[in-house]
Amino acid sequence: QVQLVESGGGLVQAGGSLRLSCAASERIFSINTMGWYRQAPGKQRELVATITSGGSTNYADSVKGRFAISRDNAKNTVYLQMNSLKPEDTAVYSCNVRVATTAIINYWGKGTLVTVSS
Description:
Helix content is 0%, strand content 57%. The chain contains no helices and eleven strands. A hairpin with a 3-residue loop joins strand 9 and strand 10.
């Protein structure tokens, strides 16, 4: 069973930066997209950013211009560079890998907590 392990979360002051990483425990084939989602306390999980196998990216409006997603296909790793962090960015960030073959399979990490203090 593929496992995704996130790292890089922590406590940072508003205006600071963090870089999240998500690595797969084994090689994953037929990846369609890799992405990051977040869930703040009392709120639903929301998309933060995704990146396709071809490198096309998509961002939530709330993070455009501040966050950047990237991936290393050889390492099956996806990154999220977060700059100019705001208190409202506080959430558990989870990575997602979507595989598309004859069916769609979604793999999820357990999440890493990002806390932004004001």
